[in-house]
Amino acid sequence: MTAPATKRLVMKFGGTSMGDLERIRRAARIVAAEVKAGHSVAVVVSAMAGKTNELVAWTDGAGPAAAGLPLSDDEYDVVVASGEQVTSGLLALTLRNMGFNARSWMGWQVPILTDEDHARARIVDVPGEVLGAALDAGEIAIIPGFQGVSPTNRITTLGRGGSDTSAVAVAAALGCACDIYTDVDGVYTTDPRIVAKARRLEKVSYEEMLEMASLGAKVLQTRSVELAMGMQVPVRVLSSFIEADENGNLPAKAGTLICDEEEIVEKRIVSGVTMSRDEARITLLGLGDRVDAPADVFTRLAEASVNVDMIVQSQARTEGAVNLTFTTGRRDATRAADLMRAAQAEIGFEEIRIDEDVAKVSVVGVGMRSHAGVAQTMFKALADKGIKFQAISTSEIKISVLIDAAYAELAVRALHSAYGLEAV
Protein backbone atom coordinates (compact mmCIF):
# COMPACT_ATOMS: atom_id res chain seq x y z
CA MET A 1 0.00 0.00 0.00
CA THR A 2 1.22 3.52 -0.75
CA ALA A 3 1.74 6.09 1.96
CA PRO A 4 -1.37 8.11 2.85
CA ALA A 5 -1.88 11.27 0.83
CA THR A 6 -4.39 13.62 2.39
CA LYS A 7 -5.27 15.34 -0.92
CA ARG A 8 -6.23 12.10 -2.61
CA LEU A 9 -9.86 11.01 -2.61
CA VAL A 10 -11.77 8.06 -4.03
CA MET A 11 -15.36 8.74 -5.09
CA LYS A 12 -17.84 6.03 -6.04
CA PHE A 13 -21.10 6.48 -7.92
CA GLY A 14 -23.73 3.73 -7.93
CA GLY A 15 -26.03 2.56 -10.70
CA THR A 16 -28.80 5.07 -9.96
CA SER A 17 -26.25 7.89 -10.02
CA MET A 18 -25.07 6.66 -13.44
CA GLY A 19 -28.62 5.99 -14.69
CA ASP A 20 -28.52 8.24 -17.78
CA LEU A 21 -26.44 10.96 -19.42
CA GLU A 22 -27.94 13.75 -17.32
CA ARG A 23 -27.12 11.92 -14.10
CA ILE A 24 -23.60 11.24 -15.39
CA ARG A 25 -23.27 14.99 -16.02
CA ARG A 26 -24.37 15.65 -12.43
CA ALA A 27 -21.76 13.16 -11.16
CA ALA A 28 -19.15 14.90 -13.32
CA ARG A 29 -20.03 18.24 -11.72
CA ILE A 30 -19.62 16.71 -8.25
CA VAL A 31 -16.22 15.31 -9.26
CA ALA A 32 -15.23 18.69 -10.72
CA ALA A 33 -16.09 20.41 -7.44
CA GLU A 34 -13.80 18.05 -5.50
CA VAL A 35 -10.98 18.73 -7.97
CA LYS A 36 -11.58 22.45 -7.58
CA ALA A 37 -11.37 21.98 -3.80
CA GLY A 38 -7.83 20.62 -4.23
CA HIS A 39 -8.32 16.85 -4.25
CA SER A 40 -6.59 14.38 -6.54
CA VAL A 41 -9.51 12.17 -7.50
CA ALA A 42 -10.10 8.58 -8.56
CA VAL A 43 -13.70 7.72 -9.39
CA VAL A 44 -15.19 4.21 -9.29
CA VAL A 45 -18.45 3.75 -11.18
CA SER A 46 -21.20 1.16 -11.38
CA ALA A 47 -23.10 0.25 -14.53
CA MET A 48 -26.28 2.15 -15.34
CA ALA A 49 -29.18 1.02 -13.14
CA GLY A 50 -30.69 -2.16 -14.60
CA LYS A 51 -27.90 -2.72 -17.14
CA THR A 52 -26.21 -5.58 -15.26
CA ASN A 53 -29.52 -7.43 -15.02
CA GLU A 54 -29.93 -7.04 -18.78
CA LEU A 55 -26.43 -8.35 -19.43
CA VAL A 56 -26.97 -11.32 -17.11
CA ALA A 57 -30.19 -12.12 -18.99
CA TRP A 58 -28.25 -12.12 -22.24
CA THR A 59 -25.75 -14.63 -20.86
CA ASP A 60 -28.63 -16.79 -19.67
CA GLY A 61 -30.13 -16.60 -23.15
CA ALA A 62 -26.86 -17.73 -24.72
CA GLY A 63 -27.12 -20.93 -22.67
CA PRO A 64 -24.60 -23.09 -20.80
CA ALA A 65 -21.51 -24.76 -22.24
CA ALA A 66 -22.00 -28.08 -24.03
CA ALA A 67 -21.26 -31.35 -22.26
CA GLY A 68 -17.55 -31.97 -21.87
CA LEU A 69 -16.59 -28.28 -21.93
CA PRO A 70 -15.73 -26.20 -18.83
CA LEU A 71 -18.25 -23.79 -17.35
CA SER A 72 -18.52 -20.44 -19.10
CA ASP A 73 -18.14 -18.26 -16.00
CA ASP A 74 -15.09 -16.57 -17.53
CA GLU A 75 -17.08 -15.46 -20.59
CA TYR A 76 -19.99 -14.49 -18.31
CA ASP A 77 -17.57 -12.08 -16.64
CA VAL A 78 -16.53 -10.61 -20.00
CA VAL A 79 -20.16 -9.77 -20.77
CA VAL A 80 -21.40 -8.49 -17.41
CA ALA A 81 -18.28 -6.39 -16.76
CA SER A 82 -19.02 -4.32 -19.86
CA GLY A 83 -21.70 -2.21 -18.14
CA GLU A 84 -19.15 -0.50 -15.90
CA GLN A 85 -16.80 -0.05 -18.86
CA VAL A 86 -19.49 1.99 -20.63
CA THR A 87 -20.12 4.32 -17.69
CA SER A 88 -16.42 4.83 -16.98
CA GLY A 89 -15.86 5.91 -20.59
CA LEU A 90 -18.93 8.17 -20.58
CA LEU A 91 -17.89 9.88 -17.35
CA ALA A 92 -14.35 10.41 -18.69
CA LEU A 93 -15.78 11.87 -21.92
CA THR A 94 -18.07 14.18 -19.94
CA LEU A 95 -15.24 15.45 -17.75
CA ARG A 96 -13.05 16.05 -20.81
CA ASN A 97 -15.87 18.05 -22.38
CA MET A 98 -15.83 20.16 -19.22
CA GLY A 99 -12.10 20.80 -19.65
CA PHE A 100 -10.69 18.28 -17.17
CA ASN A 101 -7.87 15.80 -17.78
CA ALA A 102 -9.77 12.53 -17.23
CA ARG A 103 -9.01 9.00 -18.34
CA SER A 104 -10.69 5.62 -17.88
CA TRP A 105 -8.71 2.78 -16.32
CA MET A 106 -9.97 -0.76 -16.82
CA GLY A 107 -9.59 -3.24 -13.96
CA TRP A 108 -6.63 -4.90 -15.68
CA GLN A 109 -4.90 -1.55 -16.19
CA VAL A 110 -4.92 -0.43 -12.54
CA PRO A 111 -4.53 -3.44 -11.93
CA ILE A 112 -7.17 -4.79 -9.55
CA LEU A 113 -5.77 -8.26 -8.94
CA THR A 114 -8.23 -11.00 -7.97
CA ASP A 115 -8.32 -14.74 -7.55
CA GLU A 116 -9.57 -17.05 -10.32
CA ASP A 117 -13.12 -17.49 -8.96
CA HIS A 118 -15.15 -16.06 -11.84
CA ALA A 119 -18.47 -14.30 -11.10
CA ARG A 120 -17.59 -14.03 -7.39
CA ALA A 121 -13.88 -13.20 -7.37
CA ARG A 122 -12.14 -11.75 -4.32
CA ILE A 123 -9.59 -8.96 -4.53
CA VAL A 124 -6.06 -10.10 -3.74
CA ASP A 125 -4.13 -6.84 -4.22
CA VAL A 126 -4.34 -3.40 -5.80
CA PRO A 127 -0.85 -1.98 -6.46
CA GLY A 128 -1.41 1.75 -6.16
CA GLU A 129 1.87 3.25 -7.32
CA VAL A 130 1.07 3.85 -11.00
CA LEU A 131 -2.48 5.01 -10.34
CA GLY A 132 -1.30 7.26 -7.51
CA ALA A 133 1.33 8.86 -9.71
CA ALA A 134 -1.30 9.61 -12.36
CA LEU A 135 -3.55 11.25 -9.76
CA ASP A 136 -0.69 13.28 -8.32
CA ALA A 137 0.10 14.49 -11.85
CA GLY A 138 -3.39 15.93 -12.13
CA GLU A 139 -5.28 13.20 -13.95
CA ILE A 140 -8.81 12.18 -12.90
CA ALA A 141 -8.87 8.37 -13.02
CA ILE A 142 -12.23 6.76 -13.83
CA ILE A 143 -12.32 3.09 -12.84
CA PRO A 144 -15.06 0.57 -13.58
CA GLY A 145 -16.19 -1.08 -10.38
CA PHE A 146 -17.08 -4.75 -10.03
CA GLN A 147 -14.24 -5.97 -12.24
CA GLY A 148 -10.65 -7.15 -11.89
CA VAL A 149 -8.13 -9.41 -13.52
CA SER A 150 -7.19 -13.00 -12.65
CA PRO A 151 -3.66 -14.46 -12.39
CA THR A 152 -4.16 -15.75 -15.97
CA ASN A 153 -5.07 -12.26 -17.25
CA ARG A 154 -8.78 -13.00 -17.61
CA ILE A 155 -11.48 -10.46 -16.68
CA THR A 156 -13.18 -11.32 -13.39
CA THR A 157 -16.20 -9.86 -11.59
CA LEU A 158 -16.70 -9.52 -7.85
CA GLY A 159 -20.36 -10.50 -7.48
CA ARG A 160 -23.38 -8.23 -7.20
CA GLY A 161 -22.68 -5.01 -5.35
CA GLY A 162 -18.96 -5.45 -5.96
CA SER A 163 -18.39 -1.84 -7.03
CA ASP A 164 -18.45 -0.75 -3.37
CA THR A 165 -15.68 -3.25 -2.71
CA SER A 166 -13.72 -1.97 -5.72
CA ALA A 167 -13.93 1.59 -4.40
CA VAL A 168 -12.74 0.70 -0.90
CA ALA A 169 -9.89 -1.42 -2.30
CA VAL A 170 -8.71 1.46 -4.50
CA ALA A 171 -8.93 3.86 -1.54
CA ALA A 172 -6.84 1.45 0.56
CA ALA A 173 -4.26 1.24 -2.22
CA LEU A 174 -4.09 5.04 -2.47
CA GLY A 175 -4.07 5.54 1.30
CA CYS A 176 -7.09 7.84 1.35
CA ALA A 177 -10.77 8.12 2.26
CA CYS A 178 -13.67 6.89 0.15
CA ASP A 179 -16.88 8.83 -0.53
CA ILE A 180 -19.72 6.62 -1.78
CA TYR A 181 -22.45 8.53 -3.60
CA THR A 182 -25.77 6.76 -3.83
CA ASP A 183 -29.51 7.42 -4.01
CA VAL A 184 -29.81 7.99 -0.24
CA ASP A 185 -28.12 10.67 1.84
CA GLY A 186 -26.66 8.36 4.45
CA VAL A 187 -27.30 5.44 6.77
CA TYR A 188 -30.61 5.66 8.64
CA THR A 189 -31.82 4.16 11.89
CA THR A 190 -34.10 2.03 9.72
CA ASP A 191 -35.67 2.10 6.28
CA PRO A 192 -37.45 5.50 5.97
CA ARG A 193 -40.01 3.86 3.68
CA ILE A 194 -41.17 1.81 6.67
CA VAL A 195 -40.70 4.35 9.47
CA ALA A 196 -41.24 7.98 8.46
CA LYS A 197 -39.41 9.17 11.60
CA ALA A 198 -36.20 7.24 10.79
CA ARG A 199 -33.16 9.45 11.40
CA ARG A 200 -29.91 9.75 9.49
CA LEU A 201 -26.90 8.71 11.59
CA GLU A 202 -23.90 11.05 11.59
CA LYS A 203 -21.43 8.25 12.35
CA VAL A 204 -21.63 4.46 12.36
CA SER A 205 -18.86 2.10 13.45
CA TYR A 206 -17.44 -0.44 11.00
CA GLU A 207 -18.82 -3.26 13.14
CA GLU A 208 -22.32 -1.78 13.24
CA MET A 209 -22.33 -1.19 9.49
CA LEU A 210 -21.08 -4.72 8.87
CA GLU A 211 -23.93 -6.15 10.91
CA MET A 212 -26.48 -3.86 9.26
CA ALA A 213 -25.26 -4.72 5.77
CA SER A 214 -25.37 -8.45 6.45
CA LEU A 215 -28.81 -8.19 8.07
CA GLY A 216 -30.66 -6.47 5.27
CA ALA A 217 -29.54 -2.83 5.04
CA LYS A 218 -28.92 -2.12 1.33
CA VAL A 219 -26.71 0.96 1.64
CA LEU A 220 -23.33 -0.80 1.44
CA GLN A 221 -22.20 -4.24 0.32
CA THR A 222 -20.95 -6.46 3.16
CA ARG A 223 -17.53 -7.23 1.66
CA SER A 224 -16.82 -3.53 1.17
CA VAL A 225 -17.41 -2.88 4.89
CA GLU A 226 -15.21 -5.85 5.84
CA LEU A 227 -12.41 -4.45 3.68
CA ALA A 228 -12.86 -0.91 5.00
CA MET A 229 -12.66 -2.20 8.59
CA GLY A 230 -9.62 -4.35 7.88
CA MET A 231 -7.73 -1.58 6.06
CA GLN A 232 -9.11 1.25 8.26
CA VAL A 233 -10.47 3.18 5.27
CA PRO A 234 -12.89 5.97 6.31
CA VAL A 235 -16.04 5.67 4.19
CA ARG A 236 -18.68 8.37 3.86
CA VAL A 237 -22.12 7.63 2.37
CA LEU A 238 -23.54 10.64 0.53
CA SER A 239 -26.39 11.50 -1.83
CA SER A 240 -25.51 11.96 -5.48
CA PHE A 241 -28.62 14.09 -5.97
CA ILE A 242 -26.89 17.33 -5.04
CA GLU A 243 -25.67 20.21 -7.15
CA ALA A 244 -22.72 22.58 -6.91
CA ASP A 245 -23.52 26.28 -6.57
CA GLU A 246 -22.86 28.88 -9.28
CA ASN A 247 -19.22 28.98 -8.18
CA GLY A 248 -18.81 25.22 -8.53
CA ASN A 249 -18.76 24.55 -4.79
CA LEU A 250 -20.57 21.62 -3.16
CA PRO A 251 -22.72 22.00 -0.02
CA ALA A 252 -21.00 21.02 3.22
CA LYS A 253 -20.65 17.25 3.46
CA ALA A 254 -23.23 15.55 5.64
CA GLY A 255 -24.09 11.93 4.95
CA THR A 256 -22.88 9.20 7.29
CA LEU A 257 -19.26 8.47 8.16
CA ILE A 258 -18.35 4.79 8.60
CA CYS A 259 -15.37 4.80 10.94
CA ASP A 260 -13.62 3.16 13.87
CA GLU A 261 -15.68 2.82 17.04
CA GLU A 262 -13.16 4.96 18.93
CA GLU A 263 -14.12 7.96 16.79
CA ILE A 264 -17.70 7.84 18.07
CA VAL A 265 -17.83 9.79 21.33
CA GLU A 266 -21.37 8.91 22.45
CA LYS A 267 -22.06 5.27 21.67
CA ARG A 268 -25.74 4.50 21.20
CA ILE A 269 -27.16 1.36 22.82
CA VAL A 270 -28.98 0.60 19.56
CA SER A 271 -28.10 2.37 16.31
CA GLY A 272 -30.50 0.75 13.92
CA VAL A 273 -33.24 -1.74 13.14
CA THR A 274 -32.93 -3.85 9.99
CA MET A 275 -35.21 -6.25 8.18
CA SER A 276 -34.54 -9.00 5.65
CA ARG A 277 -37.19 -10.89 3.71
CA ASP A 278 -34.54 -12.97 1.95
CA GLU A 279 -34.90 -15.77 4.46
CA ALA A 280 -36.04 -19.39 4.49
CA ARG A 281 -36.53 -21.71 7.44
CA ILE A 282 -35.72 -25.39 7.04
CA THR A 283 -36.68 -27.93 9.70
CA LEU A 284 -35.52 -31.54 9.94
CA LEU A 285 -38.16 -33.39 11.95
CA GLY A 286 -37.32 -36.56 13.85
CA LEU A 287 -33.55 -36.27 13.56
CA GLY A 288 -31.76 -39.00 15.46
CA ASP A 289 -30.49 -37.64 18.78
CA ARG A 290 -26.87 -38.56 18.03
CA VAL A 291 -24.11 -36.32 19.25
CA ASP A 292 -22.69 -36.07 15.72
CA ALA A 293 -25.99 -35.52 13.86
CA PRO A 294 -25.86 -31.67 13.74
CA ALA A 295 -22.21 -31.82 12.67
CA ASP A 296 -23.20 -34.16 9.84
CA VAL A 297 -25.94 -31.78 8.66
CA PHE A 298 -23.89 -28.59 8.76
CA THR A 299 -20.76 -30.18 7.29
CA ARG A 300 -22.75 -31.14 4.20
CA LEU A 301 -24.18 -27.64 3.93
CA ALA A 302 -20.77 -26.00 4.38
CA GLU A 303 -19.19 -28.20 1.70
CA ALA A 304 -21.92 -27.01 -0.67
CA SER A 305 -21.23 -23.35 0.27
CA VAL A 306 -24.68 -22.91 1.83
CA ASN A 307 -24.57 -20.18 4.47
CA VAL A 308 -26.56 -20.92 7.62
CA ASP A 309 -27.63 -18.25 10.10
CA MET A 310 -30.02 -19.14 12.92
CA ILE A 311 -30.03 -22.63 14.44
CA VAL A 312 -32.58 -24.04 16.90
CA GLN A 313 -32.74 -27.59 18.25
CA SER A 314 -35.80 -28.80 20.17
CA GLN A 315 -37.11 -32.06 21.50
CA ALA A 316 -39.20 -34.07 19.01
CA ARG A 317 -42.36 -35.95 19.83
CA THR A 318 -40.59 -39.19 18.96
CA GLU A 319 -38.48 -40.49 21.83
CA GLY A 320 -34.77 -40.38 21.12
CA ALA A 321 -35.17 -37.77 18.36
CA VAL A 322 -34.91 -33.98 18.00
CA ASN A 323 -36.12 -31.34 15.55
CA LEU A 324 -33.36 -29.24 14.00
CA THR A 325 -34.27 -25.86 12.48
CA PHE A 326 -31.93 -23.55 10.62
CA THR A 327 -32.29 -20.53 8.33
CA THR A 328 -30.58 -19.69 5.08
CA GLY A 329 -31.10 -17.27 2.21
CA ARG A 330 -34.01 -18.01 -0.10
CA ARG A 331 -31.69 -18.56 -3.05
CA ASP A 332 -29.95 -21.35 -1.13
CA ALA A 333 -33.09 -22.92 0.34
CA THR A 334 -33.94 -25.29 -2.50
CA ARG A 335 -30.34 -26.43 -2.84
CA ALA A 336 -30.07 -26.99 0.91
CA ALA A 337 -33.32 -28.98 0.96
CA ASP A 338 -32.20 -31.10 -2.00
CA LEU A 339 -28.93 -31.85 -0.20
CA MET A 340 -30.81 -32.97 2.89
CA ARG A 341 -33.25 -35.16 0.94
CA ALA A 342 -30.44 -36.81 -0.98
CA ALA A 343 -28.73 -37.75 2.29
CA GLN A 344 -31.87 -38.44 4.35
CA ALA A 345 -31.05 -42.09 5.00
CA GLU A 346 -27.46 -41.30 6.01
CA ILE A 347 -28.36 -38.33 8.21
CA GLY A 348 -31.38 -40.10 9.69
CA PHE A 349 -34.43 -37.83 9.90
CA GLU A 350 -38.13 -38.44 9.29
CA GLU A 351 -39.33 -35.35 7.41
CA ILE A 352 -38.13 -32.00 6.05
CA ARG A 353 -40.16 -28.79 5.97
CA ILE A 354 -39.38 -25.50 4.22
CA ASP A 355 -40.98 -22.15 5.04
CA GLU A 356 -40.12 -19.09 2.94
CA ASP A 357 -42.84 -16.91 4.44
CA VAL A 358 -40.51 -15.60 7.15
CA ALA A 359 -38.46 -12.47 7.80
CA LYS A 360 -35.51 -11.60 10.00
CA VAL A 361 -35.68 -8.44 12.10
CA SER A 362 -32.59 -7.25 13.96
CA VAL A 363 -31.41 -4.52 16.30
CA VAL A 364 -27.78 -3.40 16.09
CA GLY A 365 -25.62 -1.22 18.33
CA VAL A 366 -22.13 -1.16 19.85
CA GLY A 367 -23.67 0.05 23.13
CA MET A 368 -25.12 -3.42 23.70
CA ARG A 369 -21.73 -4.52 24.99
CA SER A 370 -22.05 -2.40 28.10
CA HIS A 371 -25.79 -2.12 28.68
CA ALA A 372 -28.23 -4.62 30.13
CA GLY A 373 -31.87 -4.95 29.17
CA VAL A 374 -31.53 -4.71 25.39
CA ALA A 375 -33.07 -8.14 24.81
CA GLN A 376 -35.82 -7.48 27.35
CA THR A 377 -36.82 -4.30 25.50
CA MET A 378 -36.90 -6.14 22.20
CA PHE A 379 -38.97 -9.09 23.35
CA LYS A 380 -41.43 -6.90 25.27
CA ALA A 381 -41.96 -4.63 22.25
CA LEU A 382 -42.70 -7.66 20.07
CA ALA A 383 -44.95 -9.24 22.70
CA ASP A 384 -46.95 -6.02 23.07
CA LYS A 385 -47.75 -6.27 19.35
CA GLY A 386 -48.58 -9.96 19.56
CA ILE A 387 -45.59 -10.95 17.42
CA LYS A 388 -44.16 -14.43 18.05
CA PHE A 389 -40.57 -15.24 17.16
CA GLN A 390 -39.44 -18.61 15.82
CA ALA A 391 -35.66 -18.37 16.26
CA ILE A 392 -33.04 -16.06 17.77
CA SER A 393 -29.41 -15.34 16.97
CA THR A 394 -27.11 -12.92 18.76
CA SER A 395 -23.66 -11.39 18.69
CA GLU A 396 -22.00 -8.83 20.93
CA ILE A 397 -23.71 -5.99 19.08
CA LYS A 398 -26.88 -7.46 17.53
CA ILE A 399 -29.99 -9.48 18.29
CA SER A 400 -31.98 -11.04 15.44
CA VAL A 401 -35.35 -12.78 15.54
CA LEU A 402 -37.13 -14.79 12.88
CA ILE A 403 -40.84 -13.98 12.57
CA ASP A 404 -43.74 -14.43 10.15
CA ALA A 405 -43.15 -12.20 7.13
CA ALA A 406 -46.59 -10.61 7.54
CA TYR A 407 -45.45 -8.94 10.77
CA ALA A 408 -42.04 -7.70 9.56
CA GLU A 409 -42.85 -4.03 9.07
CA LEU A 410 -44.93 -3.89 12.25
CA ALA A 411 -41.95 -5.33 14.16
CA VAL A 412 -39.57 -2.76 12.67
CA ARG A 413 -41.84 0.13 13.67
CA ALA A 414 -42.34 -1.27 17.16
CA LEU A 415 -38.63 -1.75 17.79
CA HIS A 416 -37.67 1.64 16.32
CA SER A 417 -40.06 3.26 18.78
CA ALA A 418 -39.09 1.03 21.73
CA TYR A 419 -35.43 2.08 21.49
CA GLY A 420 -36.27 5.78 20.97
CA LEU A 421 -34.47 5.94 17.63
CA GLU A 422 -36.69 8.72 16.31
CA ALA A 423 -34.85 10.99 18.78
CA VAL A 424 -31.28 10.07 17.68
What does this structure look like?
This protein is an alpha/beta fold. The protein has 13 helices and 20 strands. The strands form five sheets. Strands 3-6-2-1-9-11-12-10 form an eight-stranded mixed sheet, sandwiched between helices. Strands 13-18-20-19 form a four-stranded antiparallel sheet, sandwiched between helices. A four-stranded antiparallel sheet has the order 15-16-14-17, with helices on one face. α1 crosses α4 and α12 packs across α13. The longest helix is centred in the N-terminal third of the chain and has 16 residues.
Features:
424 residues; four-stranded antiparallel sheet; alpha/beta
Per-chain topology:
Elements: E1 8-13, H1 21-36, E2 40-45, H2 51-62, H3 73-80, H4 82-97, E3 102-104, E4 113-114, E5 123-125, H5 129-136, E6 140-144, E7 147-149, E8 155-157, H6 162-174, E9 177-182, E10 203-205, H7 206-214, H8 222-231, E11 235-239, E12 256-259, E13 272-276, E14 280-288, H9 293-303, E15 311-315, E16 321-328, H10 330-342, H11 344-347, E17 351-355, E18 358-364, H12 374-384, E19 389-395, E20 398-404, H13 408-418
Parallel strand pairs: 1-2, 1-9, 2-6, 3-6, 9-11, 10-12
Antiparallel strand pairs: 4-5, 7-8, 11-12, 13-18, 14-16, 14-17, 15-16, 18-20, 19-20
Helix pairs in contact: 1-4, 6-8, 7-8, 12-13
Average pLDDT rating = 92
How do the strands line up in the largest sheet? 3-6-2-1-9-11-12-10
The radius of gyration is 24 Å
Q: How does the helix and strand content classify structurally?
A: alpha/beta
The largest sheet, given as strand count, sense and whether it forms a barrel, is: 8 strands, mixed
Helix content: 25-40%
Number of helices: 13
Percent of residues in beta strands: 15-25%
Distance between the termini: 37 Å
